[in-house]
Amino acid sequence: MTNLKKLVTTIILAVPTMVYAQGFQVNLQGQVQQGMGTAGTALIQDGAALFFNPGGAAFVKKNSIDLGMTATIANGQFLDSNSGTVNKTASPVSTPFTAYAIFGKDSCTKKGMTNLREKLSHMKGKIFKDKFQDIGMKFGLGVYTPFGSIVDWEKGWTGRYALTHLQLQAIFIQPTISIKLGSKFGIGGGFVYSTGSVNLQKDIPVVDANGNVGHAELSGKASGFGYNLGVYYKPYKYLSLGLAYRSQVNMKVNSGDATFTVPSSLSTNFPNGKFTSSLPLPSVLTLGVGFTPSEKLSFALDVNYVGWKAYDTLSFDYENNTASLVDTKSARLYKNTFAVRFGGQYKITPAFAVRLGIGYANTPIQNGYVTPETPDANRYIYTAGLGYTIKNKFTINASVLYETLKRTDTNLETNLSGTYQTNVIAPGLSLSYKF
Length: 435
Prior knowledge:
This protein has helices at about 1-15, 15-20, 30-35, 50, 115-125, 125-130; strands spanning about 65-70, 75-80, 85-90, 95-105, 135-150, 165-180, 185-205, 215-235, 240-245, 250-260, 275-280, 285-290, 295-305, 315-320, 330, 335-350, 350-360, 380-390, 395-410, 415-435. It is mainly β.
């Protein structure tokens, strides 16, 4: 019974790990930016500024609606250190999406912001007044998926008692306000409401009279709140700077469902029921630099600092406790990480642009904590993209992202030991309309 208790505890504890691992953090929030190494905090080009830097959203030319989707295809395999067996995933395609809408005044010099301008002038006098003659305000709404994945391991694989199926998604809804204070400076912020779901399934090493292996299915819905703040500054014609902070979001699972399929003789040890938990999605601080030496050529650089350290311990409170299923606490000991993203864009014609990018991110998962849900590793990403504008109103953007991961580890809880390798390709497409 001790082994069964340890197994069930491990099964339940694994539920939220997919939400946090960098391998399931979706950095696909804009097709233009995806083509440029997923950088865009200081180079403001379209409605994705609502995500990358709310302070720069007021500098988006004209009002706009942007809709996009990326097909994320991940093929993984696991080489067992003990048996030498190789198992593969047969995962369906996941489709993170983005939807952005920006509307308001590009410039309110003559009306709309008169009272604000007069107050600023009264506070600071003529110098302040001259500096902030060009004032604008824009409102926006962003809906995007920063976390999500689908994983299916082949039937009977070595780690089936750790994971057989995973499907998760987190959707962020962000109303935003952005203010342009002159031609060089902007500030903005957005409130974030997050809603998500997870379904995880694993086998249990118990067999009924018909030879069927036990099975566990864990599912739940979660929600949380946060914010996204940004500052944009363009000191020179060719140079722009951006600073953005996306807060930690504590996702609360108030009523998750745990369902066990086991022999009837063990049903009292594995009771179906509810569980609650609180799961921290990390904060992200980003410094961005944009450089535009000509109308045709531009570059973007983002440096991210991700607060993964918030995920140091995972605890669960179960509605039905037994000797095999008790409330648990488990160390995760994630560490804060850095990521660097860089890309360039060249406009072959005023309507046609090509893009290339590269990025590097180190993993927050320390040795001993790698799981089949999060076989994460330090990674390089490579991206490319195209954009074409029709009559200055409609723009079609396409991108493709490629990355490969490899990590060898022995998990301290499950003792699953081996080498994970995952190849990811993510082609995407978006349509933008400016009016």
